[in-house]
Amino acid sequence: MELIDSLEVVGTAQVYEHGWQSWSPSTTYRTSDQPWRPLNERNRIICYRPDTQPGDDAFWGEGLLAIDPGDGSGIRIYAVHNAAELVPSIKAEQNGGTISVFANGPVDSIVDTEPGSIDNALARWADGFAAAAGMTEIRQAPSIWCSWYHYFTGVTEVDMIENIESIDRLDLPVDVVQLDDGYQTAHGDWLSLTDRFRSLEAIADRIIATSRRPGIWLAPFLVFPDSDLAADHPDWLVGGATAPVHAGHNWGRDLYALDTTHPGAMEWIVEVLTTMSQWGYDFYKMDFLYAAALPGARYEDVSPLVAYRSGMRTIRNAIGESYLLGCGAPILPSVGLVDAMRISPDTEPQYLPNDGDRSQPAITSAMLTGRGRAFQHGRFWVNDPDNLIVRPHGVHRKEWADHVRNYGGLRGSSDRITDLDDWGLAVTRELLTESPTEPFVPSRGHA
Q1: Full residue range of the structural domain in which residue 33 is found
Q2: What's this model's pTM, rounded to 2 decimal places?
Q3: Is residue 286 located within the same domain as residue 325?
């Protein structure tokens, strides 16, 4: 890494780290704090930038890092100007009263002397970054109901019908009913259904009959090793048939990544999305998108970020004007490619992550990074803080509802509707009524 700056700091100095993708912790630290780091290799691959390994003895931003020296001289922002092909890593090391800043690629160095905190400075920086990326319009997000946080991968067609009918009977302000993970036989085999589902088209028809829109979840760039796709087309994988790249471990198995530069692989994705669109689906949650940006050999010799962005453009072309929500995605390279973005780890019906790693699902994980990326709302896209979980006996449900109220642009519910008590139903109705699009203003504390 090359030294790009050195500055004197005082005891009140702070450093903002921006993580690589949706689930990577992003927040402001005191210089005496130890930043969040992956606690194991599995988390590093799935939730952080897998080809960098920052230690806990320095601060580290992927394409963006900011420092408030604490002396009133202005916020320093170090940031990539264009994230389409290269996102440098930026490191800040403290030695006594001096912080030295290093980067492994070209970054802009900005001194923001306007009044306010690091959050205010980041909002001003984001205005310029969005303009340079060609952002001209932020599309208002629909309100959604999502199957995930009650049913997880065990969701059934019967479950979907029950909630479609409950939403309609109660006349909840839900624009989109979204089926999440669990309908498909394997990642990669998106049109092959488990025995819990008869027809995705029939579910779409039931939703449309209530004057709502069908939505669906996919992880388009992940492939299960035991899928038909992996067996029939191993050449479609990043790394190829002989050495497929390890894309992490989840759902009890190792994962592969789809090669977005392979014509056959992308023809398959287009076929999947075209078919779903013909059935009426026009809201797509695309998850685990980091897989397309993993290092590895590809059909075309391009950088991982070029491959990722090419894959996302193919998806956009295939779904047309349908609403596109990204998740588990490299953040800065995705500006201009999605309508809304999950900007934090998953929430969960639990307060703390099981292993203590703040990239992992939990209310505290989602709140930490949801606040740390609040400045992106209304500038890069509509921020998705993750869904409401306000069922009775939910852990810290009022605190989580307040977070969604303050930081949510995309508003969603993920409770079984018949499980909600009067308070949960009222909060769900309240928060799903509005989907804010105006840029987040840090001093106001809400989106």
Answers
A1: 7-132
A2: 0.98
A3: yes
